[in-house]
Prior knowledge:
By secondary structure, the protein is α/β, with parallel strands linked by helices. The protein has helices at residues 7-19, 35-47, 65-70, 75-85, 95-98, 117-120, 124-139, 151-164, 193-213, 218-231, and strands at residues 2-4, 24-29, 50-55, 89-91, 143-147, 169-173, 235-244, 260-268, 271-280.
Amino acid sequence: MKIVHTINDLQSELSQLKAQGKMVGLVPTMGALHAGHASLVKRSVAENDVTVVSIFVNPTQFNDKNDLEKYPRTLKEDCLLLDECGANFAFVPSVAEMYPEPDTRQFSYAPLDTVMEGAFRPGHFNGVCQIVTKLFDAVLPHRAYFGEKDFQQLAIIREMVRQENYALEIIGCPIVREADGLAMSSRNTRLSYEERKNALKISQTLFESRTFAAEHTVAETKQFVEDAIAAAPGLELEYFQLVDGNTLQPISAWDETTYAVGCITVFCGEVRLIDNIKYKE
């Protein structure tokens, strides 16, 4: 696997491979890689001739500077994992490389980006769209891979690709969980032993709510989840929303949609964790 630091070097490498008719897959990441990322990389390796994995902690999508500073950075370990997964290139640019000047572009995909994360993290999705478009423009991949744990992000990126007329396929990949059910996240490394035990209540509650939902209303299911998290030690609920999986708009009855998803964000100590579960699909 080659480690590349500049867009010019990356494009020089890829242009030769594309000239040979090679299909290119892109896996955008912020590093601190785990088995969830590995599943994306392995799928890209299986479906493409060439796989590029970007490792870049994007400053424009953090509305909390403290969160940006504390985001884990494990480049050496990341590159070892990518090599084991069969990636061809690790694209590891500097902030100056990706943002030689301030990016003033504004992306708006309402109402997808005005609810949930969009409401609680102003500017977050604009920053996501800034960096993802820069990566798409640099790599010009045939396919790009994103995890379904960031459910709202995936929906927004699909809409961005449609509106901006990018000629690539977006592949959503299932959530990868720890053996006990906790959704894998780079932020999990920031949890203390006690916080890690407390965090398990998030996925447990979601799984229990799916059983509960079979005989209860949307409002009752929402209350069930909110009450369970409120009663759990060390957890503070930011939001839980039951939404249509395509529009991301809240639903009030199960028969309003054929694709019902519950999206949750919880603070475990200072660490902000997200998860989701499908009730109907």
